[in-house]
Amino acid sequence: MLSPPLSLRRPWHASGPRTRRGALPWRPLLLLLALALQALPHRAARAAEPSLRDLQVLARSLGFLEPAPRGLAEIGIVYAAGDSQGEAEARRIATLFGEGLRAGNLQLRPILVPLDRVRDSRAAALLLARSALPQAPMVAAAVAGRAILTVATDRAPIEQGLVAMAIRSEPRVEIVVNRAAAQASGVTFAAAFRMMIQER
Q: 52-199 has which fold?
């Protein structure tokens, strides 16, 4: 979290909390402004599309699954069916994978998965695009017990237990696993990985 951009120290010329009649004291106003500015980057980060660095973190995390996928594996980019903007976002995310994103012995190839086809997916993991987040409960039900990792770059679904993993690479790498959601989907992580991440 960024430090408040404004100093809350009393100006050198101020001898006391004097204000004009009817005016609010300046200290509370500056405090409110500082808190508002601190909150802005967090909201913007949550609204952002997954970046290439986010996907690289995801690819490395898949190597800690038990059993871990090897060779060529598919990752589904889930979007709301019939939502043209959602599909366009999913295609932009898929483009970041290029010919296939590599992490150790794993090469991830993206496939687009509309929400109404999630039950048919055999991908190693499903990354929920923003248009799919409102339907995260449906995705969770569709993958229950199938050992498919569900992932989002938004923290809300992980806090609600609707996806197994949340990732974010900016401003620092952050990986959060929801233990109950992972168990429900039949996903298990190596003990060494669990020591490096946050669990809910």
A: Rossmann fold (3.40.50)
